[in-house]
Amino acid sequence: MVEVELDPALDPLENMQKKFSKAKRLKGAKGIIGPRLARAKRELEGIQELSLRVSMADSEQALSDLRPLLDTLLDPAQRLPRQAATLRNKSKNKRRQPYRIYTSSAGLTIMVGKSGKDNHQLTFHVAKGYDMWFHATGAAGAHVVVRLERGKDIDEQTLLDAATLAAMNCPSAKDPKVEVTYTKVKNVHPIKNAPPGKVSVSNVKTILVRMEPDRIRRLKESILS
């Protein structure tokens, strides 16, 4: 048995015609709604990706580099005017650092490489042999260096901060726990003919770092450049 609600103001024939008309409209809309939902899903994914990349941007130039992605997400009428050429030129003239600088809870400097070439520059041309080096175990990601004074050991909270930054900058960043390798910079060596940033390490230790939201938020707020 199927019960169909009828409009008492209409006779049976008019009710039938009304129902068939509505069914026809719904059937026609089905072919339109599917593609629209798929397009909306792609746009949402693009916006989420853009939001993540904006939150990680560390300079005006980095934000400017995201402009093409923004334009692909917006209708032409919604697009904002381009930045003035003077602002672009000013940004380009700034000296680019190969790393981002964070501050640990103990006040120590933590440097995070921005790319493969930047990782190489940070580890072998900026860091000192007695500094501490971190990297997500068995995965691509940023080199992370904690600046230490000669003869000083790293404190527990700074170790956790640096390990968290290494985990945040690897493909497993969304996992609840990430294994991170660490050692002194003097134990890190470049591999001949390997891509920039690929290294061999010795005398390593590992830590399974838990991705704590409060710690991550504090580290993001501590970024200097």
Helices, strands, pairings?
Blueprint: H1 12-56, H2 60-65, H3 67-73, H4 85-93, E1 99-103, E2 109-113, H5 116-126, E3 132-136, E4 144-146, H6 156-168, E5 177-184, E6 188-190, E7 199-201, E8 205-210, H7 213-222
Summarize the structure.
The chain is 45% helix and 17% strand. The protein is an alpha+beta fold. It folds into two domains: 12-93, no CATH class; 99-222, no CATH class.
Structural notes for this entry:
By secondary structure, this protein is α+β, with helices and mostly antiparallel strands. The protein folds into two domains: 12-93, no CATH class; 99-222, no CATH class. The chain is built from seven helices and eight strands, in the order ααααββαββαββββα. A six-stranded antiparallel sheet has the order 1-2-4-3-5-8. It has a two-stranded antiparallel ribbon with strand order 6-7. The longest helix has 45 residues, at 12-56. It starts with 11 loop residues before the first helix and ends with a helix. Residues 75-87 have low confidence and may be disordered.
How far the N terminus sits from the C terminus, by CA atoms, comes to 70 Å
Order of helices and strands: HHHHEEHEEHEEEEH
Shape: elongated
Discrete helix count: 7
Number of strands: 8
Q: Which structural category do the helix and sheet elements fall into? A: alpha+beta
Largest sheet: 6 strands, antiparallel
Percent of residues in beta strands = 15-25%
Number of spatially distinct domains: 2
Kindly state the percentage of residues in helix.
40-55%
Indicate the radius of gyration in whole angstroms: 27 Å
Q: What is the mean predicted local confidence, pLDDT? A: 82
Stretches where pLDDT is under 50 for at least 5 consecutive residues are: 75-87
Side by side, the strands of the main sheet go: 1-2-4-3-5-8
